[in-house]
Amino acid sequence: MPIRHEVKQGDSVISLSERHGHFAVTIWDDPANAELKAERDNMNALLPGDVVVIPDKRPKGVSKPATQRHKFRRKGVPAQLRLQIFDVETPRASQDYTLVVDGAVIKGTTDARGVLEEWIDPGARRGKITIGPDKYLIELTFGHLDPHDELPGIQKRLNNLGFDCGEPTGQMNDKTQGALRAFQARFGLPITGEPDQATIDKLTEQHDDPSEFPAQEPST
User: Fold this and answer.
1) DSSP label of 183
2) Is 154 left (phi over 0), alpha (psi -120 to 50) or beta?
3) 177-192: per-residue pLDDT in tens?
4) Would you identify the CATH topology of the domain 3-54?
5) Contacts of 38 (CB under 8 A, 6+ apart)
6) What's the pTM?
7) 41-72 pLDDT, tens per residue?
8) Dihedral pair phi/psi, residue 98, rounded to 5°
9) Whether the Cβ atoms of residue 104 and residue 79 lie closer than 8 Å to each other
10) What is the CATH code for 79-141?
11) CA distance 77 to 126
């Protein structure tokens, strides 16, 4: 029978699909998850406490001669990691990197936008990147990015973009309001220190998809 899984920090639909032997879209598109899907626009940015229904497996039959040996290849593995890396506000374009994920070592070079794209194990939990001539180190935790419209997700996105909120506790505090004001000033938004819809939209746009920082307006 279907399993009701309460999301814990680090869970994503991709990691759950690997654990339960489904395609990620099989879980996400199941009618039992329609309400959650309407609330969360990204299957891999869930909030602890969300409930994901894992449907029953459906057997698939194939007709093959009984006197021969046959090979079957499982689809749906691995998952894609896409990350844009900056040095302050300058993309780390065309820089060599070494990515280590759960002991597996991958070497590559970022593209002209500073974007890294690699295939990794969907069950991976942690990784690290060493990039550029300065050997800059970035620690990665997979599945820990909360939804963009929840305060922990807002705090984590601000931190990732260099607007320091401190520990993403999910509680509004002076440091988070200061980071919001700094972000709003940088992107030409009304400086309220509050996560209004315009701020959430700009933060999500800037963080979740490859994009450049806009040019700074000259000081007056």
Assistant:
1) H
2) alpha
3) 999 999 999 999 999 9
4) Membrane-bound Lytic Murein Transglycosylase D; Chain A (3.10.350)
5) none
6) 0.80
7) 888 889 999 999 999 887 666 666 767 776 65
8) -125, 120
9) no
10) 2.60.40
11) 17
